[in-house]
Amino acid sequence: MLSSEQLTLTNIRKALDEISGEMMALIQQYDLDATTALDIIPVARRKISLPKDYTRFLELSLEGRILGEAATALEQATCEE
Q1: Contact (Cβ atoms closer than 8 angstroms) between residue 15 and residue 2
Q2: How many CB atoms are located within 10 Å of the residue 12 CB?
Q3: Strand, helix or coil for residue 2
Q4: What is the pLDDT of residues 33-55, one digit of tens each?
Q5: What's the predicted TM-score (pTM) here?
Q6: How would you label 62-71 residue by residue, b for 16+ Cβ within 10 Å and e otherwise?
């Protein structure tokens, strides 16, 4: 996770790309076939067999959400200036 000093749009995009890559690997490995974003956690809970992989899936989900919100806030702050 990025520190507060590292929160630039470029760094956030790079971190999100890395998170997406790791998340896609888990999605493919466990054939997570949720049809909506709201279904992904129950599907992951049911299909991911290793606790460490399920924990990592949740961590990646949370990190992605936090970084996405940080990027939105930075973009809005930049547009307001």
Answers
A1: yes
A2: 20
A3: coil
A4: 999 989 999 999 999 999 999 99
A5: 0.85
A6: ebbeebeebb
